[in-house]
Design brief:
The protein folds into 2 domains: 12-65, no CATH class; 77-155, no CATH class. Helix content is 54%, strand content 8%. The chain has 7 helices and 2 strands. The chain has helices at 14-26, 40-49, 79-90, 92-107, 114-117, 124-128, 132-154, and strands spanning 31-36, 54-60. Strand 1 (31-36), helix 2 (40-49) and strand 2 (54-60) form a beta-alpha-beta unit. The longest helix has 23 residues, at 132-154. Mean pLDDT is 85; it is low at 150-155.
Length: 155
């Protein structure tokens, strides 16, 4: 498996150049994109910066810029998000410790445990529909992401 290289100082907008490079390598001219949570701004950056290639973009439970005027940025967020954002503000070492500790349980999360594993990040109505193929997909995504992230942190 290929492992990405950390890019200190990276901006959300930098995702568009990365996506364009991947599309070029694959020989793909057009695409659609969706981002969930912190991935939402990345999907929107691709739509804004690759308007000819990106046919559609969706942001699902995406976040706004934390410095948006008049916005109580943490309002309505689950405690897990608040803990992660506070660790990020404290510095890379604190964030790395938090994410490394969270990676273990995520690696072993099965489809039956996905909804409970999301804690207070999603509503009870959302948890009720995390079943079947969707739960299988989420479990595989979380497991793969946690494993990949752990190897990057350890390596």
């Amino acid at each position: 498996m290929a492992v990405s290289t950390p890019q200190p100082g990276r901006l959300v907008a930098d995702a568009a150049a990365d996506v364009a490079a991947i599309l070029d390598r694959l020989g793909v001219d057009e695409f659609v994109t969706a981002g969930w949570s912190g991935g939402g701004p990345h999907a929107l950056a691709c739509a804004a910066l690759l308007p000819v290639r990106c046919l559609a973009a969706a942001s699902v439970a995406g976040i706004a810029p934390s410095d948006s005027p008049g916005l109580d940025w943490l309002a309505g967020m689950g405690p897990e998000n608040i803990e992660e954002f506070e660790a990020a503000l404290a510095g890379e070492a604190d964030l790395t410790r938090l994410l490394d500790a969270a990676a273990g349980p995520m690696r072993d999360l099965g489809a039956a445990e996905v909804a409970a594993g999301l804690g207070e990040l999603v509503s009870e109505a959302d948890k009720a529909v995390i079943t079947g193929d969707f739960a299988d997909y989420l479990a595989a995504s979380f497991s793969g992401g946690a494993e990949h992230g752990h190897r990057r942190l350890a390596g």
